[in-house]
Backbone:
């Protein structure tokens, strides 16, 4: 039981950045803008967040900085792919490199700790939140353990991430903005003829992507860890992309995909070098590659079919 | 005459060098159905897009309800009560009917209230006009007729008093089209003004009150439908063009080269474009297929030449079958002596980014005469290209020049030279002179006649009736995917025009 | 990938605009240098000196350039078929298996000049096979090749860690790498060429793979512009509809072009493994697969552009290392930024300055902006 709770607790922690980045990608891709630059925006956000938190001593300032820089990069992507109708893949790749390089260069120049930012403590970091009644319920069997040890005791951003799931669902399917966002990713001409600006709508979508990748980055460096380490996203942006495809661009399945991929990650650390329950010894590398392998199998259409938003990746040009 | 719902005064619009609308004046009385008719490319759709704010006129004035109105965006059009049903529906395929209807007209930030409002409004529209549709159905699961109804409902929901329909029956079955006409009449009775853009004379005669004819960007006439005839409209539409008669002798037609039997082809949406078509082409004759664009001619030649798969039917080339339903390979058909000048030379017949000499081997690039082992024999290709340039008078005569830098006529000559110089037994030609200057037209026509006189079988499709009449030894007319008649080269323009418009006429049938 | 735009003179199209894009990318990089408190001009001087200041430095520059020629060519071949191969990194990484297995098997029995061709074949084959799967999935099942090649990069990384840790590492060793190759698995250095030119090279890893890279540049040129296959690849890349009309099979071209691309990326593994380290270690590709994207975009997918672009990036790598000595605030990761900026301005924003330049040209010489036919009519 303890082992399971620990494993699930770890699953939640590692799933959060995936989930935030995955939902970030959802806004952009649902609006028809492919974004393989989630990784770079998250990384830049993590760096800006940790730097600002270290300098100001406030986690909140860090959070704002993380969001600001990620939105800025999202706008660069928008400028290239919406305004200049550039290749969205190329633009995403570029942003990933710019982020990867500048976080190291600036980190070294500003803090001289080999690409790290100073360790954060106290108010400079989001600490664990004890939910009301967690202590009192701790001794209740099962439910108490789940509530006190699994659900309670995470940082604010963990709760934000999971609340973003129903919120995103609500935005997408219950608001005017969501309706238009989904429409512009499927048929921008329909949106245009309905008298709505395709450009402005898509810019708003990439801004949403920027905000959420900023939160993901801040979680990594200001909540989960106590500072920025070079290349700390380590491919999480791409796993989030895989999860997004795996979830067929839907918010609730996205959460489950991220939890699944997070669980694989947590379990691979937990059982490193040890035999797994039931299946026995599994190379950790196989577990690491599993999110990607599963996504490819899905993309190949062997388990269901992942149909991306119809207008995805194609710049909108008013037809003659 | 009733008060004008819309008046257009001196509208001009150019796209680059193309003058799509030239000094258009038009008055549409309120509460009427007004037809606008013309051939493809006559400028009808451009004019309506200007009215709907999708494009802006270079000059001219629009008056709505007697007041000069600036329409810069679709929003402005919607605001003054203009709604449009586009030829290609502007619907989000995986949305429900109600989601599509409220898109852009939600009213509030939250959908709940706007959907509720739309639901009751839909019920009202349904009652008033008999426009039944399940508001929760997903668009892609609806038949096209119902999808179009959603488009109409979209416009009405936005309070449209003037409804523009662009080629609304193109995708409909005859029964669906009849239903649409009943709806339009009902809308008219409720006081709405309908503008119907079409190239089908039958529709104009069936439901319009007035009709305006466009030709080559100008408005050539407006008539009361009750005071005109199909013959007059057909003539106005086609115009009296200077006939480019080509000298040609009697046909000495020989055996069957190409036999098409019961060919049926569907497009990517699953709409039947070629419907059970059969015909033969003999050696030494030109068979022309006349028809207004979009009646299946394109799909017909694509299927025969292996570019598009057919659903059923068979094609024989020199007595041996072509696998048109399975895996007909254009390369293999070329080897068997079937050459194809495609309709769309910019995207299909040529690679515009290539040098001229590279395009002069497209499709024949596996011919040993252009190869040295796996390598291209550049010297042979250049020599060959130069020879063709000489023979077909392609200008500028530089085989190293990018193809995009040649004029339309010279580009077409590059394609023709390539296909004809392979000495094919059968030549399929689509729109050989579209966008080609007058000098080149004559040259191309002479070449086609020379092919015929050399005993080749030529299948020609063209939307230019003159071209069909002056070149063909036999004329087939296609309408709605079927061959609706066969005529000799002496058939009159009016006779063919009626067939092309889908009008079964007594005299025409004989 | 390119859309035809209104006409500009050829030299503006192929020279001026790419040059402006590149210049803007470097100006932006200069701003980053300013931001970390260093003088960008001085940095540029140190960089160029570090790259070309001595025979030793030139040899290093060319050593790095070797990697980028291979990966740049790989990306370019796929571009010509209208495909975006983001998987060069993974293809090169996994191809290390082909190289080291050949070297491990034959280094004790064959001289290098016999091991080398076998290793080339091994590298190309493994790289090509790794590209085959995404290509097949795109051609037959419609899976987006960009996404699948990204995924294959990660899968390759996992496979290689597993192979190095669990299979190839000698039991007695600690570090996850293969055993050191014997003489038969080591490629000869090319430093003598530079020395023959009067430059002194102490010990630089420039090796015969550089010549192979140049041969491959010629090979790619011949393939793309001189063979029937290349003709088909370009036709398909420019216009899939025209390819269909010409009887060129879409899936065949997709698969062949991607395999050639993967094979070229794979050959990159020869340079560090057999040419320099003489063993295979973790992460020997070190981003060269991604640099290939920048190189191909900058070189406009033509070997004549790719080789200098690769040398420029080689210069940035080598000069960047020297720069890090002189300016402690700048590390070699500066190149990653430049790479990103080049991809952004030469790739995603390649048409940003075009309207301005067109307006400029139009105001300078209205005649050169006429309708294409009019412009060339008299030629």
Residues:
């Amino acid at each position: 039981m303890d082992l399971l709770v620990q494993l699930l607790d770890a699953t939640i922690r590692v799933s959060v950045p995936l989930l935030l980045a995955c939902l970030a990608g959802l806004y952009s891709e649902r609006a028809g803008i492919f974004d393989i630059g989630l990784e770079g925006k998250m990384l830049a956000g993590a760096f800006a967040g940790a730097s600002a938190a270290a300098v100001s001593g406030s986690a909140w300032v860090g959070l704002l900085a993380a969001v600001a820089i990620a939105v800025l990069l999202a706008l660069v992507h928008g400028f290239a792919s919406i305004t200049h109708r550039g290749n969205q893949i190329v633009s995403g790749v570029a942003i990933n490199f710019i982020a990867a390089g500048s976080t190291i260069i600036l980190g070294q120049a500003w803090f001289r700790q080999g690409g790290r930012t100073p360790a954060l403590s106290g108010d400079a970091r989001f600490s664990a939140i004890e939910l009301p009644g967690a202590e009192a319920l701790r001794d209740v069997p099962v439910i108490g353990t789940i509530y006190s040890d699994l659900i309670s005791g995470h940082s604010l951003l963990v709760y934000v991430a999971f609340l973003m799931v129903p919120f995103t669902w609500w935005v997408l399917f219950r608001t005017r903005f969501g309706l238009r966002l989904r429409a512009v990713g499927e048929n921008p001409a329909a949106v245009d003829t309905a008298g709505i600006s395709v450009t402005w709508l898509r810019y708003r979508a990439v801004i949403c992507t920027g905000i959420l990748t900023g939160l993901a980055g801040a979680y990594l460096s200001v909540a989960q860890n106590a500072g920025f380490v070079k290349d700390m996203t380590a491919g999480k942006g791409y796993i989030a992309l895989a999860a997004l495809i795996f979830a067929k661009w839907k918010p609730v399945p996205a959460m489950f995909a991220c939890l699944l991929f997070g669980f694989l990650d947590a379990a691979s650390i937990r059982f490193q070098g040890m035999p797994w329950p039931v299946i026995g010894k599994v190379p950790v590398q196989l577990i690491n590659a599993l999110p990607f392998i599963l996504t490819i199998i899905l993309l190949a259409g062997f388990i269901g079919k992942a149909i991306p938003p119809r207008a995805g990746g194609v710049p909108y040009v008013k037809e003659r | 005459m009733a008060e004008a719902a819309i008046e257009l005064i001196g509208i001009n619009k150019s796209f680059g060098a193309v003058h799509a609308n030239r000094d258009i004046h038009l008055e549409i009385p309120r509460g009427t159905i007004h037809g606008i008719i013309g051939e493809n490319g006559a400028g009808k759709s451009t004019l309506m897009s200007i009215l709907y704010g999708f494009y802006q006129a270079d000059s001219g004035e629009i008056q709505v309800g007697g007041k000069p109105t600036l329409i810069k965006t679709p929003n402005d059009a919607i605001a003054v009560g203009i709604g449009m049903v586009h030829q290609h529906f502007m619907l989000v395929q995986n949305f429900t009917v109600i989601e599509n209807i409220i898109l852009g007209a939600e009213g509030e930030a939250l959908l709940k209230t706007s959907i509720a409002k739309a639901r009751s409004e839909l019920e009202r529209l349904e009652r008033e006009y008999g426009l039944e549709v399940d508001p929760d159905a997903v668009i892609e699961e609806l038949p096209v007729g119902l999808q179009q109804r959603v488009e109409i409902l979209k416009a009405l929901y936005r309070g449209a008093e003037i409804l523009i329909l662009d080629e609304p029956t193109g995708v409909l079955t005859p029964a669906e089209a009849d239903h649409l006409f009943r709806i339009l009449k009902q809308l008219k009775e409720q006081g709405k003004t309908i503008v119907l853009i079409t190239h089908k004379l039958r529709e104009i005669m069936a439901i319009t009150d007035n009709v305006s004819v466009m030709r080559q960007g100008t408005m050539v006439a407006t008539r009361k439908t009750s005071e005109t005839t199909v013959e007059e409209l057909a003539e106005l539409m086609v115009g009296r063009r200077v006939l480019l008669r080509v000298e040609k002798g009697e046909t000495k037609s020989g055996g069957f080269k190409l036999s098409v039997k019961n060919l049926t082809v569907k497009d990517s949406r699953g709409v039947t474009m070629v419907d059970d078509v059969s015909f033969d082409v003999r050696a030494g004759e030109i068979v022309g297929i006349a028809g207004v664009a979009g009646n299946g001619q394109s799909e017909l030649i694509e299927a025969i030449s292996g570019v598009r798969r057919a659903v059923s039917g068979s094609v024989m080339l020199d007595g041996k079958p072509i696998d048109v339903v399975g895996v007909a390979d254009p390369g293999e058909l070329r080897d068997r002596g079937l050459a194809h000048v495609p309709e769309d030379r910019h995207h299909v017949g040529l690679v515009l980014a290539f040098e001229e000499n590279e395009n002069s081997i497209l499709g024949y690039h596996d011919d040993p005469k252009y190869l040295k082992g796996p390598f291209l024999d550049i010297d042979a290709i250049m020599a060959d290209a130069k020879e063709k340039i000489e023979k077909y008078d392609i200008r500028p005569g530089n085989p190293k020049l990018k193809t995009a830098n040649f004029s339309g006529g010279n580009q077409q000559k590059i394609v023709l030279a390539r296909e004809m110089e392979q000495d094919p037994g059968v030549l399929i030609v689509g729109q050989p002179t579209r966008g080609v200057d007058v000098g080149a037209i004559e040259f191309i026509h002479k070449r086609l006649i020379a092919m015929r006189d050399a005993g080749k079988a030529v299948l020609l499709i063209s939307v230019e009736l003159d071209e069909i009449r002056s070149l063909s030894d036999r004329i087939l007319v296609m309408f709605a995917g079927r061959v609706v008649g066969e005529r000799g080269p002496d058939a009159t323009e009016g006779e063919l025009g009626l067939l092309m418009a889908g009008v079964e006429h007594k005299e025409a049938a004989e | 990938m390119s859309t035809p735009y209104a006409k500009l003179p050829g030299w503006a199209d192929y020279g001026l605009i790419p040059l402006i894009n590149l210049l803007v990318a470097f100006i932006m990089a200069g701003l980053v240098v300013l931001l970390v408190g260093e003088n960008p001009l001085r940095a540029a001087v140190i960089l160029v000196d570090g790259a070309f200041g001595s025979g030793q430095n030139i040899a290093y520059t060319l050593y790095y350039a070797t990697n980028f020629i291979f990966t740049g060519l790989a990306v370019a071949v796929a571009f010509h078929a209208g495909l975006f191969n983001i998987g060069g990194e993974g293809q090169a990484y996994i191809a290390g298996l082909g190289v080291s297995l050949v070297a491990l098997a034959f280094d004790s029995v064959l001289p290098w000049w016999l091991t080398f061709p076998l290793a080339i074949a091994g590298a190309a084959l493994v790289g090509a096979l790794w590209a085959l799967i995404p290509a097949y999935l795109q051609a037959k099942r419609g899976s987006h090749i960009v996404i699948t090649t990204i995924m294959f990069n990660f899968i390759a990384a996992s496979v290689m860690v597993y192979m190095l840790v669990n299979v190839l590492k000698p039991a007695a060793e600690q570090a996850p790498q293969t055993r050191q190759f014997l003489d038969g698995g080591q490629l000869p250095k090319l430093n003598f060429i530079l020395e023959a030119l009067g430059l002194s090279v102490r010990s630089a890893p420039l090796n015969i793979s550089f010549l192979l890279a140049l041969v491959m540049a010629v090979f790619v040129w011949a393939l793309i512009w001189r063979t029937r296959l290349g003709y088909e690849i370009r036709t398909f890349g420019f216009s899939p509809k025209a390819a269909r009309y010409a009887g060129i099979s879409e899936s065949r071209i997709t698969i062949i072009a991607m395999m050639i691309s993967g094979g070229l990326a794979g050959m990159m593994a020869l340079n560090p493994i057999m040419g320099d380290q003489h063993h295979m270690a973790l992460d020997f590709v070190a981003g060269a697969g991604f640099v290939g994207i920048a190189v191909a975009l900058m070189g406009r997918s033509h070997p004549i552009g790719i080789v200098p672009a690769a040398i420029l990036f080689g210069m940035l790598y080598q000069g960047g290392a020297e720069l890090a000595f002189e300016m402690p605030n700048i590390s070699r990761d500066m190149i990653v930024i430049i790479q990103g900026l080049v991809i952004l301005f030469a790739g995603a924003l390649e048409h940003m300055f075009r309207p301005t330049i067109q307006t400029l040209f139009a105001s300078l010489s209205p005649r050169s902006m006429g309708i294409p036919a009019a412009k060339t009519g008299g030629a």
Notes: Residues 2-30 of chain A form the longest helix (29 residues). The mean pLDDT of chain A is 91. The first strand of chain A starts at residue 128 and ends at 129. Chain A has 13 helices and two strands.
